[in-house]
Amino acid sequence: MLIILLTDTCCDRSTKVQGYETGSVSFSCPYESEYLNNIKYICRGNQPSTCLQQALITSDHKPNRQFTLTDDTASRKFTVTITGVTQRDSGSYLCGVHRNTGLDVFSAVELEVKVKQVGSFFLHDQLTILYFTKVNILNHFFFYIVILLFLSVLVTVCDVDYFTDRHLL
Fold it and tell me: Locate the Immunoglobulin domain: which residues (predicted)?
């Protein structure tokens, strides 16, 4: 009995790419000269069979908000740029070149997005501190406005009573 096991994964090795949250990362995907005019694309994961259908961007479509794909036919590689990356963008990606016949050609990329460290705090900690500082400033501002309104009403009421009492005597 002969059992053939087919797997839907790709690539013996992958290119490692690192970036920092809120920044941009770029990586290049090489291809052979026979595919100069073919559609290039990128997808998340490592399943070639569904990659084109789940493409994040393709060379025949305009760039979207986060992903751009530029094809440099002279050097036979296309470059993908991801802007505003977060840790959720970390993981496996496939660069694909669509072939008119047969299976598409793939190369793999492993993206790691790190939290940017600023001083002794992480960036998201500083944003939280900044947020609470703004909230505290607004709270203090509204508190002082309420106190001033209360005092102005109190002074007005007291002055009216004071003058009213003096004029009646």
Answer: 14-114
Q: Are 59 and 78 in contact (CB under 8 A)?
A: yes
Torsion of CA 18, 20, 25, 28, to 10 degrees: 0
Amino acid 2: pLDDT: 46
DSSP 37: T
- The pairing of beta strand 121-122 with beta strand 117-118: antiparallel
In a domain, 6, yes or no: no
Which residue type, as a one-letter code, is found at position 80?
V
The answer, yes or no, to whether residue 169 has pLDDT greater than 50, is no
Average pLDDT of span 73-91:
96
CB-CB contact of 79 with 26 (8 Å)? yes
Kindly state whether residue 1 falls inside one of the protein's structural domains: no
pLDDT digits 0-9 by tens, 10-67: 888 999 999 999 999 999 999 999 999 999 999 999 999 999 999 999 999 877 889 9
Are residues 131 and 66 both part of a single domain?
Answer: no
Token pair for residue 82? Answer: 């991801």
Could you tell me the pTM of the whole model?
0.65
For 109, the domain range is 14-114
Amino acid at 106: F
